[in-house]
């Protein structure tokens, strides 16, 4: 690590001010950022910890929406969203290991937008709204490719609003080393149609599989996906799986998610 | 009734209390007054010419004590290689220089180029970033077969080519083997790869150098499996420090698995730098550094062929292996694919003719050396896999094919130069059949199929050679070291014992198991015995721990020393009891005169030895301390049979291990619980190799699996509940304990069982698959099904 200053504001406003400095960076649970700092791959002059901001924490049900504070840990979501949105709670409860879930936050995960992260699939698959200190961003506009989002410099995710589906599920196969998704699919059925979001697979990060959405909107059953395939051109090919394998897994995981949806 | 102490008791591991409660003393726990820290600037280029290293900006950085480059080591020897292999033409291997810091060229990613010693590690690292290294990148050689092409770039410009040696074994058998292949009724050929692994002990390597200006004594604290070997190699060959001025301490060590046998540059560096800087210098490897500086394991590419007659008897075996040495020769690297591999090719079978060819190749990768099993897993894997393939081709039962070809009479001289003293391969196979419930497999397969899963069974045997010896033989084979072991048994006046052993425990449980042997011999409580190891200042010269040698060789030395103690104690007792020495019996910690009720307690005799008022001073010296050096007459040959059952997900190719059973013959057993633990750990590593672990480079020599994000370590939930049995015991005939060693068996016997099980599962779905290369990742298994 390089040296940095550390501040721990108590409100979003204070945090926004602290982040206005050049080379200041937000620190959520640190589960991505701290390893990056340790490897000296980032050198912020100041870390602005968001963990002291009470207004950014917690899970609540507001009508047909689950609202999660941007600083809420995966563990809290796993526990507190379980009755309102079981598919989402299940996803949160399967991220990493207990240590990661006790520290890592939804805001950090969505801000980072790792192409193999879990939360982006839930946010995109639910048509969630990402709320920041300055605006609201629809999930469809938010994810802009691997590690790229609509967030501006210094913008903080304060809240994420998930419309509650009729049914949902998350199916993932783990990359053998990191145990992040090798490919995972989040499926959510809403009154106005089905959303299918795929993570881990594409060089462009999380994406919606529109053919599957169309098929499932007509018939929400695993065999509605029979014969549907995704092209392997843009799929990630690496040590852990070829592009063709990942393309194949998209279909398998989507079917499993549909079969498991409740 | 299980015993509650002595040989055969499952005494609880006494060392675990300190390990598990944070009371251990690991090398990183050692912090010396005035200590400075070193950070190594390592190459991020696999192959290149160093044009210039400019340290001027770094010199003035805060906290910098001194910056070292190759120039500072001009008068110092390079890293020595401890084994010289002679090739099939009678030529000695090509042996390149191995500098402490890169000299002229860099030859692998991770090679240290410069070292910064500073007040803090952070300052050392900051300064290292300010060093300007100008390197002209050269094409890297990564693939072994490419490296041997005539136009391949040379890893070492001063060598003829990238071929370290071309070894033939047994060269005299070659023609007869060829002939047997001509006459064979069936020949099975299998090409396979034994994947490169990174050992990943929980504790990364650490080294602290210290120099006492007043006495001129050097001390190295290091994470080593064999401190005396390090003292000899580093003192005599690298730094020119006489052994009486050099102390090497390897305190608690958190796992070794072979990778902490070797003498590394960082050890020589901190020892040298401590004197040059006149203050202690400490290096602690980060996990990232470990991936690119710890010696790797395995990495063989092999073609094996098995010849059978019309009755399915094995008539000949031929194997061609390319063994990756990496960029330099690590300490024992040349021995692994040769003497630890070729000599094991007979396995459990009476194949009369065997020829082994091994080409050891230099590439621009991290050096490769011994890793749990070292050569023996590679031998077992190819042999057992080719037998499975032969059974498929011939349409016969693979277990029956093995049984039919088992060695049945012992001692048995193999055609690959070793003589097995004892074994009973039918017994372990029968035991396996029982504990693995092989009879119930078909029912379990149906049950899996009903759930939509494929189920497969893999069964194989293994033979291992432990306690490599005797020294005069290994000397002829090229070892530049002896392979005896030592023990000093010191009895204190009040009867307690301290045993100073040349073996080293880095998790194995010596502190528990060794006292069990002595407690049994004397008839006293284990708690009266303490094991001291890991410090050249207070242990006799010993060769350390690797190759499952500690109980067989180190334990035997301890037995010999204890026998001397008992003999002397009997003399003292005979004096105290005024009886003839030949009438003295030792039982339950007391000496008695046969046929009488006269006796004297162990403690009275030991006290007399140190307070010799009533003592035969004219016949024997006071004191009770004896040393023994034990050089075995042969290896020991543990063996066994392993079974693995897997389920394969048809859609994803994911493999889960459903059952794993091991029936081992380790000869006599000192502590069954510790032995089970060793087997469990070995199987876990074997499953790791078979399913998960893969050290991969890209074509430019960049390490793709350089962290746990990409190098897949096995985790507890990847493992089934193991069923292990070691009740089949054919004691070793040539050591006093009748023990064989158990440290590597699990890692040797398990990979072929896992692969065999997956192949069997795929075949049950009608796939024409005979082999899949490790690791059997979901991606590869799925591809094999397409
Ligand atoms: C061992 C391990 C296993 C893991 N396994 C998984 C897995 O299976 N699936 C998975 O999805 N993830 C996994 N993760 C990642 C984990 O979920 C992280 O917690 C998450 O990606 C980042 O969240 P964080 O709160 O820790 O963010 P940090 O690491 O603190 O920050 C990450 C980035 O987000 C920014 N940031 C943080 N909070 C906010 C905010 N509220 N608004 C704006 N920007 C913000 C930071 O500035 C930084 O750039 C794993 C991590 C580890 C260490």
TrEMBL record, chain A:
Gene3D superfamilies: 3.30.465.10, CO dehydrogenase flavoprotein, C-terminal domain, Uridine Diphospho-n-acetylenolpyruvylglucosamine Reductase, domain 2. Signal peptide: none annotated. The keyword Oxidoreductase applies. The keyword Secreted does not apply. Keywords: FAD, Flavoprotein, Oxidoreductase. SMART domains: CO_deh_flav_C. One of its GO terms (molecular function) is oxidoreductase activity. This is Carbon monoxide dehydrogenase. It comes from Pseudosulfitobacter pseudonitzschiae.
Automatic annotation (TrEMBL), chain B:
Residues 21-139 form the Aldehyde oxidase/xanthine dehydrogenase a/b hammerhead domain. It comes from the Bacteria. One of its GO terms (molecular function) is iron ion binding. It holds the Pfam family MoCoBD_1. The keyword Oxidoreductase applies. The keyword Mitochondrion does not apply. Keywords: Molybdenum, Oxidoreductase. This is Carbon monoxide dehydrogenase.
């Amino acid at each position: 690590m390089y040296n940095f200053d550390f501040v721990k504001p108590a409100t979003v406003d204070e945090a926004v001010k602290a982040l206005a400095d050049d080379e200041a960076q937000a620190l959520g649970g640190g589960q991505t950022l701290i390893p990056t700092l340790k490897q000296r791959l980032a050198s912020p002059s100041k870390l602005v910890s968001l963990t002291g901001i009470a207004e950014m924490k917690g899970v609540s049900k507001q009508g047909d929406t689950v609202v999660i504070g941007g600083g809420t840990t995966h563990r809290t979501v796993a526990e507190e969203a379980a009755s309102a949105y079981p598919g989402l709670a299940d996803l949160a409860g399967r991220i990493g290991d207990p240590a990661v879930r006790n520290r890592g936050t939804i805001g950090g995960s969505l801000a980072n937008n790792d192409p193999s992260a879990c939360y982006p699939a839930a946010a995109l698959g639910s048509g969630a709204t990402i709320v920041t200190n300055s605006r609201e961003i629809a999930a469809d506009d938010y994810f802009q490719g691997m590690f790229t989002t609509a967030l501006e410099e210094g913008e903080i995710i304060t809240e994420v609003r998930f419309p509650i589906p009729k049914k949902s599920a998350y199916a993932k196969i783990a990359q053998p080393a990191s145990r992040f998704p090798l490919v995972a699919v989040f499926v959510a059925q809403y009154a106005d149609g089905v959303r299918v979001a795929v993570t881990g697979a594409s060089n462009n990060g999380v994406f919606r599989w529109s053919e599957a959405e169309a098929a499932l909107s007509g018939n929400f059953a695993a065999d509605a996906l029979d014969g549907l395939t995704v092209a392997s051109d843009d799929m990630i090919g690496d040590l852990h799986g070829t592009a063709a394998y990942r393309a194949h897994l998209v279909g398998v995981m989507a079917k499993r998610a549909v079969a498991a949806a409740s | 009734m299980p015993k509650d102490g002595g040989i055969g008791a499952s005494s609880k591991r006494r060392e675990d209390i300190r390990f598990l409660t944070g009371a251990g003393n690991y090398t990183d726990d050692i912090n010396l007054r005035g200590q400075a820290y070193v950070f190594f600037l390592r190459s991020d280029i696999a192959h290149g010419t160093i044009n210039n290293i400019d340290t001027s900006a770094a010199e003035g950085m805060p906290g910098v004590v001194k910056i070292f480059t190759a120039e500072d080591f001009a008068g110092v020897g390079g890293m020595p290689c401890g084994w010289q292999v002679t090739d099939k033409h009678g030529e000695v291997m090509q042996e390149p220089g191995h500098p402490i810091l890169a000299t002229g060229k860099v030859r692998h990613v991770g090679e240290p180029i410069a070292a910064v010693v500073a007040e803090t590690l952070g300052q050392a690292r900051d300064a290292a970033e300010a060093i300007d290294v100008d390197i002209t990148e050269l094409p890297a050689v990564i693939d072994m077969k490419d490296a041997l092409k005539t136009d391949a770039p040379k890893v070492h410009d001063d060598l003829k080519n990238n071929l370290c040696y071309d070894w033939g074994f047994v060269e005299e058998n070659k023609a007869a083997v060829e002939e047997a292949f001509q006459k064979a009724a069936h020949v099975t050929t299998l090409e396979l790869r034994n994947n490169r692994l990174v050992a990943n002990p929980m504790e990364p390597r650490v080294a602290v150098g210290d120099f006492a200006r007043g006495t001129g004594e050097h001390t190295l604290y290091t994470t080593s499996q064999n401190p005396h070997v390090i003292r000899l190699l580093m003192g005599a060959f690298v730094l020119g420090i006489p052994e009486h001025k050099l102390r090497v301490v390897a305190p608690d060590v958190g796992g070794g698995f072979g990778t902490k046998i070797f003498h590394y540059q960082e050890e020589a560096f901190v020892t040298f730098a401590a004197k040059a800087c006149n203050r202690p210098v400490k290096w602690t490897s980060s996990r990232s550094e470990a991936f690119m500086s710890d010696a790797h394991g395995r990495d063989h590419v092999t073609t094996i062929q098995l010849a059978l007659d019309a009755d399915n008897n094995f008539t000949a075996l031929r194997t061609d292996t390319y063994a990756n040495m990496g960029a330099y020769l690590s300490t024992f690297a040349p021995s692994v694919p040769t003497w630890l591999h070729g000599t094991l090719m007979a396995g459990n079978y009476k194949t009369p003719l065997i020829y082994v060819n091994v080409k050891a190749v230099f590439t621009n990768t991290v050096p490769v050396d011994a890793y749990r099993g070292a050569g023996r897993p590679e031998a077992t894997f190819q042999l057992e896999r080719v037998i499975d393939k032969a059974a498929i081709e011939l349409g016969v039962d693979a277990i029956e094919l093995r049984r039919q070809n088992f060695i049945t009479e012992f001692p048995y001289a193999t055609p690959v130069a070793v003589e097995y003293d004892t074994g009973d391969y039918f017994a372990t196979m029968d035991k396996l059949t029982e504990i693995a419930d092989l009879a119930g497999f078909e029912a379990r397969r149906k049950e899996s199929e009903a759930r939509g899963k494929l189920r497969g069974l893999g069964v194989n045997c293994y033979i291992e050679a432990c306690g490599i010896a005797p020294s005069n033989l290994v000397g002829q084979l090229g070892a530049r070291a002896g392979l005896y072991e030592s023990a000093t048994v010191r009895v204190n006046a009040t009867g307690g014992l301290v045993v100073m052993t040349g073996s080293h425990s880095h998790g194995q449980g010596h502190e528990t198991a060794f006292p069990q042997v002595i407690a049994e011999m004397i008839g006293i409580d284990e708690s009266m015995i303490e094991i001291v190891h890991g410090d050249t200042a207070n242990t006799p010269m010993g060769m350390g721990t690797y190759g499952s040698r500690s109980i067989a060789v180190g334990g035997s030395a301890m037995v010999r020393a204890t026998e001397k103690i008992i003999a002397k104690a009997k003399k003292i007792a005979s004096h105290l009891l005024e009886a003839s020495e030949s009438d003295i019996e030792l039982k339950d910690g007391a000496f008695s005169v046969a046929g009488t009720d006269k006796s004297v307690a162990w403690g009275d005799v030991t006290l007399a030895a140190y307070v010799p008022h009533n003592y035969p001073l004219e016949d024997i010296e006071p004191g009770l301390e004896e040393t023994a050096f034990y050089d075995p007459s042969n290896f020991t040959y543990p063996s066994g049979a392993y079974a693995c059952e897997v389920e394969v997900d048809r859609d994803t190719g994911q493999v889960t291990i459903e059952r794993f059973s091991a029936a081992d013959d380790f000869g006599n057993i000192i502590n069954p619980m510790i032995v089970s633990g060793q087997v469990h750990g070995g199987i876990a590593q074997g499953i790791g190799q078979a399913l998960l672990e893969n050290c991969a480079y890209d074509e430019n020599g960049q390490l793709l699996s350089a962290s746990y994000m990409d190098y897949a370590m096995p985790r507890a939930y990847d493992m089934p509940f193991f069923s292990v049995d070691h009740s089949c015991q054919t004691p070793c005939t040539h050591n006093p304990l009748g023990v064989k060693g158990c440290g590597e068996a699990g890692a040797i016997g398990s990979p072929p069982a896992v692969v065999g099980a997956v192949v069997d599962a795929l075949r049950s779905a009608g796939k024409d698959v005979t082999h899949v290369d490790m690791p059997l990742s979901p991606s590869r298994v799925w591809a094999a099904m397409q």
